[in-house]
Write a structure and sequence with these properties.
The complex is a heterodimer of chains A (450) and B (402). Chain A is built from 15 helices and 17 strands. Chain A is α/β, with parallel strands linked by helices. Chain A has an 8-stranded parallel barrel with strand order 1-2-5-6-11-12-13-17, surrounded by 5 helices. In chain A, strand 12, helix 7 and strand 13 form a beta-alpha-beta unit. Chain B has a domain of 239 residues: Luciferase-like domain (TIM Barrel, Alpha-Beta Barrel). Chain B is built from 12 helices and 13 strands. In chain B, strands 1, 2, 3, 4, 9, 10, 11, 12 and 13 form a 9-stranded parallel β-sheet that branches. A two-stranded antiparallel sheet of chain B has the order 5-6. Classes of the chains: A alpha/beta (450), B alpha/beta (402). At the A-B interface, helix 1, strand 4, helix 2, helix 3 and strand 8 of A face helix 3, helix 4, helix 5, strand 6 and strand 8 of B. Bound molecules: flavin mononucleotide (FMN).
Chain lengths: 450, 402
């Protein structure tokens, strides 16, 4: 049997991938939008729905960023509500470890796992800037170098809490008048550098025991953390060669932790545009790119590389003559910057702009965020399958550009083709998300090799 | 038809409020770990046109002891997060208010604010919130961030205990304050989707709350747009002066625990005085009396049910609230009586679930309707509407200069 593809649906986010100016764009906050996307994904037999998280509104030039979608619901709360309108779909939430405590988050996730019948997943993120910390009790207390140390110990502690109730701790024998056995069900003690806690956990063992753990960091520390602790990686490596390289790198790290290559799934976030013909798809893709990069957005994206106020520049005019400012105090807050060396990038962009006679907006459209899969449904299905069979990925987190209908066409036109190819399920065969993903039952955190 | 103003709530916890409830309940003893248990109870409460349901929660395991686990194996232990439960049942209900309990002592006001705002979004304006304080050393050890020495609940007048309780409520006051400012931090019309200028929001309609206090500072604005109700109702369970003051300053609903109609009148007077002392300008608190209920067709049968529960637990059950044992008709008399004494309604704590809730809905509610005391159907609208609370003014949108 060929490798089976994992498919997940990303609720459109708060960056310019999401097109809000289109007449078909609906509310980013009404529950009906979430219900629509979740039911579409479930109709398409998707593995899970995915929600991102940001704990402070983004700012640029010292002001709240107003050009993209702003505002979204609390991750855990909306997932619990979605458990009520779906039956099989996994429910994955991004939840930061820096501004939460294990006891509280572990009980929320275990509760979600119970209330969804074993469909909970947690995307562990660490972003630890002082900017976000201003919304929380401890402020920006954690040095960047410690963020994965805290994340790893956080996950380890959560696993201890999830296992603190033995499988048969609740006997509930009415005749004998015995509810618990033994008396210390839920007892735990964790004494570590980051957490020194002890007592009793309130939530009996949940269906998956450990909700599925996803990880989305890309640094060497992030990859190592994924290799030791995660069930899946939400990666940015959405092109074939880049994906294959990342795939090899991460899977090769698993043996050190006594894990099989199969036990860590690589799922890049990708976008798609469909058309009846290749030409029509290209045309639609270009139209969407223009919607994604408004004149104002073009200037703002340029500022993220230049790290200067460029608000006086003409979006249709040439690139700034001056060089980018060094990285120390970033003009953008609340979001990681994506570029490598700004000076090198600037040089490359200038050359391209001159060669192709592009103004700022057209250049930005050309160099940022091209859609991953563009073509007829047939072509997209083939490409995705090729990606997975050649180990550039184990599946995809699809990021639609429209809320809430952006996935409809994919489910109607591409999913049946993947099913025909025998690489995607036609019915759910399991009930828990671990079963959908073909992951082993929950396991204790392996001892970390020195 | 008269204009019924009585408010009725049901307090949900495990398989009921009696410690031996799990022995006699007609439900599976592990039912509270399953979503359908909660949606079933909510559907039943909604059949009775109740105003709201509350869901108990704590950052420690249930215990018969005031501080820490009791090692008992004969009572129900373990429970799920109340906000998660409330959100899970929101899509299957249409009218009833959903009021989860959370601690504000070890938790982040920012997360609490966004969670309740989101509950309000997913329920179409039916969220409420009951903040509580966590005063035990057991709860503090679960977080390992601060020492709480623990206290003897029978010696609340010890100076150290008085200090601790005052501090916990002062922090709770700041927490509710922050939660409420965050709810206001987005004006209702902040999302503009102005294609001409490329702007999704008008950032001038989003506000930093810049709260600085002794326990935390919170910058804002919220990451969640303003909840449909603007300000979901906040409920406080209060047994004494410190908590009455907290409720008067911060809450919309107060749950009180009188033993009889006379005490109910006294407590109402005390709560109203606390409102004056707090300089309260908003609508008066909705005062709901908490009352445990053991119901049956005759007084004798009810008494027998209660004795049987007490026997199974080896003690005569007592709690912080009075417990009524009798028929629905007698309970309707009591309700009318205390209502005349000044309480706006009741939060009933069923001794056994679903049994006593079913009796409340099938027998007490019709008896109250017959007396013209309770609504026959939902009018439609938000939880604030059900409670008769006016639309709140966003403090950032108010015309007065900040
Ligand atoms: C595809 C992808 C999606 C991410 N989504 C989020 C998110 O929703 N919320 C968040 O706080 N961080 C998010 N992150 C940030 C990372 O999880 C991580 O905390 C950050 O990149 C710093 O870690 P690193 O240095 O290992 O990359 C995302 C990262 C990637 C690659």
């Amino acid at each position: 049997m060929p490798k089976q593809i994992i498919l997940a649906a990303h609720f459109p986010g708060v960056n310019n991938t999401t097109v809000w100016s289109d007449p078909a764009s609906g509310s980013q906050i009404d529950f009906a939008s979430f219900v629509h996307l979740a039911r579409t994904a479930e109709r398409g037999k998707f593995d899970f729905l995915f929600l991102a998280e940001g704990l402070r509104l983004r700012e640029q030039r010292g002001q709240i960023h107003d050009l993209d979608v702003v505002g979204r619901p609390d991750t855990l709360t909306v997932l619990a509500a979605l458990a009520g309108v779906t039956t099989h779909l996994g429910l994955a939430g991004t939840l930061n470890t820096t501004f939460r405590e294990p006891y509280e988050l572990a009980r929320q996730l275990a509760s979600l796992d119970h209330l969804s019948g074993g469909r909970a997943a947690w995307n562990v993120v660490t972003s630890s800037d002082a900017f976000t910390g201003e919304n929380f009790r401890r402020g920006g207390y954690l040095d960047r170098s410690l963020r994965y140390q805290r994340a790893a110990e956080f996950v380890q502690t959560a696993r201890e809490l999830w296992e603190s109730w033995a499988p048969d701790a609740v006997v509930a024998d009415r005749a004998a008048g015995r509810y618990l056995d033994p008396a210390d069900a839920g007892a735990f003690a964790h004494h570590g550098d980051q957490f020194d806690i002890a007592g009793h956990f309130t939530v009996p063992r949940s269906p998956q025991v450990h909700p599925v753990i996803l990880q989305a960091g890309d640094s060497p520390e992030g990859r190592e953390f994924a290799a030791s602790s995660a069930d899946a990686i939400f990666s940015r490596h959405g092109t074939l060669e880049d994906g294959q390289q990342f795939y090899r790198d991460v899977k090769s790290r698993l043996a050190r932790y006594g894990r099989e290559p199969d036990h860590l799934k690589i799922i890049p976030g990708v976008t798609f545009v469909l058309g009846d013909t290749a030409a029509e798809a290209q045309e639609r893709a270009h139209h969407i790119r223009r919607q994604q990069v408004s004149p104002q957005t073009a200037i703002l994206l340029l500022e993220q590389v230049w790290n200067r106020d460029l608000s006086g520049y003409d979006p249709d005019g040439p690139l700034p003559a001056e060089d980018p400012r060094p990285d120390d105090d970033s003009i953008i807050k609340g979001r990681t910057r994506l570029t490598d060396d700004p000076i090198v990038t600037a040089r490359r962009w200038r050359a391209l702009a001159e060669a192709k006679k592009l103004g700022i907006r057209d250049l930005i459209i050309e160099v940022t965020g091209r859609q991953s899969f563009i073509g007829t449904p047939q072509h997209v299905a083939e490409s995705m399958d090729h990606f997975v069979q050649t180990d550039a990925a184990d599946g995809f987190i699809l990021v639609p550009h429209l809320t809430p209908g952006g996935l409809d066409e994919f489910v109607d036109r591409v999913v049946p083709l993947l099913q025909d190819r025998g690489v995607f399920r036609t019915e759910y065969t399991g009930t828990t998300l671990r079963e959908h993903l073909g992951l082993p039952a929950a396991r204790p955190l392996p001892v970390v090799a020195a | 038809m008269s204009d019924p103003t009585l408010h009725l709530a049901v307090a949900l916890d495990g398989l009921g409020w009696h410690p031996a409830a799990w022995r006699l309940s007609c439900a599976e003893p592990t039912a509270p770990l399953h979503a359908h248990w909660w949606s079933g109870l909510a559907a039943e409460a909604e059949r009775g046109t109740l105003d709201l349901l509350t869901i108990e929660d704590s950052l420690a395991l249930q215990s018969s002891r005031p501080d820490g686990p009791d090692g008992r194996t004969d009572q129900l232990r373990g429970r799920l997060d109340a906000v998660q439960i409330a959100a899970r049942i929101a899509p299957s209900t249409r009218h009833i208010g959903l009021v989860p309990t959370t601690s504000v002592t070890h938790t982040e006001p920012f997360h609490l604010s966004t969670a309740v705002a989101t509950l309000d979004h997913v329920s179409g304006g039916r969220a409420g919130w009951r903040p509580r304080v966590s005063g035990t050393s057991a709860e503090a050890r679960h977080f390992g961030r601060r020492d709480i020495p623990g206290f003897d609940p029978h010696r609340l007048d010890e100076p150290a205990t008085v200090r601790l309780v005052d501090e916990l409520f002062a922090e709770a006051t700041d927490a509710v304050e922050v939660v409420r400012w965050l709810w206001d931090s987005w004006q209702d019309d902040a999302v503009i989707r102005d294609v001409a200028t490329g702007r999704f929001i008008d950032r001038d309609r989003l506000h930093y709350i810049d709260f600085t206090g002794r326990w935390f500072s919170v910058k804002g604005p919220s990451i969640v747009p303003r909840p449909p109700q603007g300000q979901p109702p906040v409920a406080v369970l209060a047994h004494a002066a410190t908590a009455y003051a907290f409720a008067a300053g911060q809450a919309d609903i107060v749950f009180v625990t009188p033993a009889d109609a006379g005490q109910a009148a006294e407590i109402v007077t005390e709560v109203r005085a606390a409102e004056v002392a707090a300089g309260r300008t908003g609508p008066p608190l909705r005062i709901l009396a908490d009352l445990g209920v053991v119901l049956d067709e005759t007084p004798t049968l009810a008494r027998r049910r209660r004795d049987r529960l007490d026997d199974l637990d080896d003690t005569e059950h007592a709690s912080d609230a009075a417990i009524f044992t009798g028929t629905p008709a007698l309970l309707a008399d009591l309700v009318a009586d205390w209502h005349r004494a000044g309480v706006d309604g009741f939060r009933l704590r069923p001794a056994v679930l679903p049994d006593d809730l079913t009796t409340i809905v099938r027998a007490l509610v019709p008896a109250l309707r017959d007396r013209g005391l309770f609504r026959h159907r939902y009018p439609g609208g938000t939880l604030r509407d059900l409670l008769g609370l006016p639309e709140p003014v966003n403090r950032y949108a108010a015309p007065s200069p900040a």
